[in-house]
Design a protein that fits this description.
The structure is a homodimer. Chain A is of the alpha/beta class. Chain A is 40% helix and 21% strand. A seven-stranded parallel sheet of chain A has the order 10-9-11-8-7-12-13, sandwiched between helices. In chain A, strands 16-2-1-17 form a four-stranded antiparallel sheet, with no helix packed on it. Chain A has a four-stranded parallel sheet with strand order 5-4-3-6, with helices on both faces. In chain A, helix 2 packs antiparallel against helix 5, helix 2 packs across helix 7 and helix 6 runs parallel beside helix 7. The mean pLDDT of chain A is 92. Chains A and B meet through helix 1, strand 2, helix 10, helix 13 and helix 14 of A and helix 1, strand 2, helix 10, helix 13 and helix 14 of B. Strand 16 of chain A pairs parallel with strand 13 of chain B.
């Protein structure tokens, strides 16, 4: 079969997006049921195709071009298949984020304005390795009435293709659900081409390495939802409960050191440093964390590595943490706003006023008091599902679930009103009464 | 006095933005009162400086480099000064858009997550001619806790400078209000430099010609809030009340033909065309509107100009309108989504279901039933003030008031919770109970 080119796929997805925008919840839920059932039914086929990818991956490991960790992310099994199917049903059970009136105002009698949520349109998702992403994103797209164009990594080509085929087949059977809502593009079609389609694609979501995200951000006019670095901080205030500081710092660093929401730098107020640092460093060392400290830290706990300027701007992604002593909360805020990545930052304090000052002034998507930075995650936030974490300031911010995949329209219902009637010396007056 | 360079201004504005983020409403309202009083007090000085710009403008008119219309927009007088001062007080009386909890969830006992509104940070505003913009934008920025960097046109250099000076002086007198919140950059400093400051400036708002907006959109990585074209449509459905179609079309075209929300193309369902077109065209012609029609329109009303393909993609900004006969509502929707600019589009119909289909499927910031497209405006929407109209899909959309100048943060209040406690086989369960 001749391969359809990317521009045609994007154009068709755009046309479909207008139809998706008017679908009711029932049709979308039928579609999600169909996807879940069909994945279940085609389990053996899916595992067989996945096996082809795994065989290639084995060769790549031998050649040294693929790591064992990536192999494990690539591998599907019965458990992962169950989670996949359950994930689709979970999304089905979430509230429909589309067609919600978030605000409404009567402008005058018989002239009512509604601010209503609508899908974004066409979302391009570029991802690596994990084939589950195909199913997750497709489910979120269906529920939020967005069309998607998926571009996966070549290492998962067979798995991605069979999953996309199963999804498309399911959707084609659902009455009232339009064609071309879910699209997978082939490996040999370039990411670069996708990034040029700003006429058709409304949003790009990269899910992968920092370098992938950075490349995409600098090479497209399409808005990009995502984050490259995750440089998260904990500030131990002078009014901190030291036991909490230790407990939270350890969890934030070691619960999953490679995660973007793991802590990279701990700032300690100078008035509590002598008391807090020995305990804190001791606890981290017990978990085999390498400590890098500035001169003041080293003067209190000698047996650590020195931190240099570059340590404040690094996402280690590993069991390494940098520690710095600061004069006061203002220096901590300023350090975080300078070196941080706007992801998630935490203050440890028992002082409510200082917590508020920190949370107001630190310019990050997540600002925490006395809780692990690792909580920054769509599942833990109760969103049910997540398409990614955003450090953007003018798009959705923080973990992005269904709500982050909609935008709004203003709908105005009139009877025949003209602006002229509301202009000039005999102008009718607006009532401007809030309805919603 | 040595001129401070743009990078320093931008850096200082960024630092100030973190302070602005924690201001309470009272301090911001004091600042707005101070601005209003100070403008009133310095009226004569402001008018005198404005006169310098007007004298230069007279020369430019003689040389043919400035139009009389621009001169009128440039000119301040007692009435405009009154409106200016009242505008500041109106913004003061609006609800504070910052620190509002828009959503909140208990993740578990003593672990509460709040989604709270926060300012965007530093906003760059690039505008032409009208010096009132300095005051309007400064007031909106103060109320929404954003720092602003203003860049006006050289033709209004004296007026802009004196207004900015008066505002900065006022703000410097307000206890607790930080310095460098409002900044005006000089004409000889390039717009281009401002567009490169993506490390400091979070949002650019261009207010001016289509070509200015297009230039800015293609020359910066900073998100741009605005619209270049305003190609608005009216679709006269087969279930339209023709009298309403005529009344609304005339207002949408002639109430202010140069406005971005004026209608440019009217689409008429073929089943109502023979009846509606003669009345509609007659009414528009009475208002001296030039009509351009496709072949079908011309076959019904002969005495009009022909419309060519390019007419569907033009913002005339003048008393010209193109008219096309369409097969059905789907062709109308498809035409609008193809040629429109996502600004404001209206259906004239008495059929609720068709209205909903149109409003769901047309991908524009404003979708209307039976009301003039000219209603698309912050004042008419009841926002009290407007920084611009956006056709973006992932930023604020439609007329943008105070609410469009804030973004949100997730604030998490814990006691000492770690993610480890919620992981593994003995994991604590999240309660995920909505609070707000």
């Amino acid at each position: 079969m001749a391969e359809i080119n990317l521009e045609t796929i994007a154009k068709q997805a755009k046309e479909t997006s207008y139809v998706l925008a008017s679908l009711n919840t029932e049709i979308k839920n039928n579609a999600l049921n169909a996807i879940a059932e069909n994945i279940e039914k085609n389990k053996d086929l899916i595992l067989a195709e996945n096996k082809k990818d795994l065989e290639n991956a084995e060769k790549m490991i031998e050649e040294g071009t693929l790591t064992r960790a990536l192999y494990n992310r690539l591998k599907l099994d019965d458990d992962k298949m169950k989670v996949m199917v359950q994930g689709v049903l979970d999304v089905k059970n979430l509230e429909d984020p589309v067609h919600k009136n978030v605000w409404a105002m009567e402008l005058d009698k018989d002239l009512e304005l509604y601010k209503t949520t609508y899908p974004i349109g066409v979302i391009g998702v570029i991802f690596e390795s994990r084939p589950e992403v195909v199913v997750q994103i497709a489910a979120l797209a269906v529920k939020s009435s967005n069309a998607v164009i998926l571009k996966g990594g070549s290492e998962a080509a067979f798995s991605n293709q069979v999953l996309a085929d199963v999804i498309v087949e399911s959707l084609n059977l659902v009455e009232g659900f339009p064609k071309n809502a879910v699209n997978l593009i082939k490996t040999r079609q370039e990411v670069n081409k996708m990034l040029e389609m700003d006429g058709y694609i409304d949003l790009i979501i990269p899910r992968g390495s920092n370098s992938l995200v950075k490349f995409i951000q600098s090479n497209t006019k399409i808005p990009v939802l995502g984050h490259s670095d995750g440089i998260c901080h904990i500030y131990v205030d002078e009014n901190a409960d030291i036991a909490k500081a230790v407990k939270i710092s350890v969890d934030s660093k070691i619960q999953y050191p490679a995660a973007c929401n793991a802590v990279e730098t701990i700032l300690v107020n100078k008035n509590i440093a002598k008391k807090a640092l020995p305990e804190l460093i001791d606890a981290l060392k017990k978990e085999e964390v390498t400590i890098k400290g500035d001169d003041v830290v080293k003067s209190i706990v000698a047996d650590i590595e020195p931190a240099i300027e570059e340590d404040w701007a690094i996402e280690y992604g590993d069991k390494i943490v940098s520690i710095k002593v600061v004069e006061n909360i203002l220096e901590a805020i300023s350090h975080i706003n300078t070196y941080g990545s706007g992801h998630t930052d935490c203050i440890i304090t028992e002082n409510k006023q200082k917590a508020e000052l920190f949370m107001d002034s630190v310019d990050s998507a997540g600002v925490y008091q006395n809780a692990s930075t690792r909580f920054s995650d769509g599942f833990r936030y109760g969103f049910g599902a997540e398409v990614g974490i955003s450090t953007n300031k003018t798009l959705a911010r923080g973990p992005v679930g269904l709500e982050g995949l909609v935008v709004y329209k203003y709908k105005l219902y009139g009877k025949d009103q003209t602006v002229q009637e509301y202009s000039g010396s005999n102008a009718k007056k607006f009532t401007h009464k809030r309805i919603v």
